[in-house]
């Protein structure tokens, strides 16, 4: 199957999971951001990771959808006025612009527990042991040691910059690496590891995918930073150049365009090598790496 | 054991679980609200529910602490400027006043997944089946069908009131009942049911405790509304009379003081009857019901 087909399957299932119940506003708000048009990269990666180790799509679909819900949760809260204050997301008004700040906070909260609930309710056939392990992966990625740690370091860095604190280049590089590892990488790590667990991969394979996820997460973020500097609103669905204007710490602002492009290529090469060295055969992963390379 | 001893055990364990790691701000913020002085009513109820069915304190302590963390999460987000906009909580400045709005949002997010992670990491000896069931209870209470549903209905009602919409008494009574059932009751339901599951209670007992939780939750909220109208800042640790001034829908504003006191007594009588009818013997529960009766 190709990426497009997989992402269509994910979209259909997300729509099914997110039924509008009472009180309607909260479910509408959750559904709004989860179903904004997107490539469904994280769920597709989860499905493909599971497939590589012999699982059916159906086995991994609840977990894949949960990861997209968690991703949407981070977008809703990141866009809030007290965070990045973004009015647009994927070309549409951001959640709090449509539903109010209060509902946006609560929709994010709701997704954080709705997502693992979806896994639990729909993955019983995986057995309690695997379920508990997937839950562990989910909590690790979603929590204070995962995406939230990345976001906190981002916010703290911006506060220190706005207070005029002089931060050395080494320190800024360290902060940026930490941000990318957690804010971006941890969701890919969750997708790859939970997929592999569902497929019954051995620990060596799971470890290799963990390293892949870290490198891929950084590559993905570098590509995003490059795009933010060079793309139009229509291409990225949000205000371009905003990071640069706001003085946000990005890979391109820290290292310049040339080194950014070079490092991106290096990281993607390393990702491909991990796939080869471990005998992971995946047209989907090749397709994804190709797309980011451009 | 008495309530005071149990809540001291909970406090000690909460302090232990909430170690300050990197990035420090997020853990400090989580810890700040979780450890604000309080009676630890929900965790104590969970411990006592487990004990009634033969479990040790140690068996239920991770779940009990997780419930207090979830409770703190709801307080942090409810106090945000875009929600109830409360500057004080338990006599201290609310979380966003100390740590900024952005950190308060993230601390709440982090607690939502940190809490079930604490259960999973520290309750392995309960076995995967019980763990999965407790997780299910947690997600149900924490999510869009639980406390969040109650909060959404609260917010929507306030919006409609502020827009001058005429809402009939019957409708307001219905809204208030729904709020109390979910915003307040669902955490007690979680405490009682998860405790009973840990203790190995049968389904009949769990059902009885569910009814108890619903009645107790409403009684607790009526008592809180009565206190809000009659107490001082020192007694309740937040601005008294705020609900009345802001025109918030409360039991006392809807039914008046006399009926509120009468209904409170009736509900507490019903709670005691459930304990008796089912042979649930608990000095702690008697103590709690006594305290609320006053």
Structural summary, described in words:
Chain A is mainly α and about 290 residues long. Chain A has one domain (about 5-294): Orthogonal Bundle (Farnesyl Diphosphate Synthase), CATH 1.10.600.10. Chain A is built from 14 helices and 2 strands, in the order ααααββαααααααααα. Chain A has helices at about 5-15, 25-35, 40-50, 55-80, 95-100, 100-120, 130-140, 145-160, 170-200, 205-230, 235, 240-245, 250-275, 285-294, and strands spanning about 90, 90-95. Chain A has a two-stranded antiparallel sheet. In chain A, α4 runs antiparallel to α6, α8 runs antiparallel to α9 and α13 packs antiparallel against α14 (about 285-294). The longest helix of chain A has about 30 residues, at about 170-200. The two termini of chain A are about 20 Å apart. In chain A, about 50% of the residues are buried. The model of chain A has no long low-confidence stretch (mean pLDDT about 95). At the A-B interface, α2, α6, α7 and α8 of A face α2, α6, α7 and α8 of B.
């Amino acid at each position: 199957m190709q990426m497009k087909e997989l992402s269509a399957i994910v979209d259909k299932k997300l729509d099914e999971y997110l039924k509008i119940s009472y009180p309607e506003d909260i479910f509408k708000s959750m559904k709004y951001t989860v179903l904004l048009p997107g490539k469904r990269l994280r769920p597709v990666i989860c499905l493909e990771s599971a497939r590589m180790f012999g699982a059916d799509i159906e086995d991994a679909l609840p977990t894949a959808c949960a990861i997209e819900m968690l991703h949407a949760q981070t977008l809703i809260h990141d866009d809030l006025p007290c965070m990045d204050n973004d009015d647009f997301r994927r070309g549409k008004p951001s959640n709090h612009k449509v539903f109010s700040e209060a509902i946006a906070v609560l929709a994010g909260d709701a997704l954080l527990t709705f997502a693992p609930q979806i896994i639990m309710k729909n993955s019983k056939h995986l057995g309690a042991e695997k379920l508990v392990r997937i839950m562990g992966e989910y909590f690790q990625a979603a929590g204070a040691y995962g995406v939230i740690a990345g976001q906190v370091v981002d916010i703290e860095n911006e506060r220190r910059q706005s207070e005029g604190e002089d931060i050395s280049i080494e320190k800024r590089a360290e902060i940026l690496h930490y941000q990318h590892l957690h804010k971006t990488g941890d969701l890919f790590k969750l997708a790859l590891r939970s997929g592999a667990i569902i497929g019954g991969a051995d620990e060596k394979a799971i470890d290799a995918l963990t390293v892949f996820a870290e490198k891929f997460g950084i590559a993905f973020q570098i590509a995003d930073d490059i795009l933010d500097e060079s793309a139009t609103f229509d291409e990225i669905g949000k205000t371009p150049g905003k990071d640069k204007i706001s003085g946000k710490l990005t890979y391109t602002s820290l290292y310049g365009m040339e080194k950014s492009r070079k490092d991106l290529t290096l990281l993607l090469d390393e990702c491909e090598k991990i796939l080869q060295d471990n005998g992971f055969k995946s047209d989907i992963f090749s397709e994804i790496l190709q797309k980011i390379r451009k």
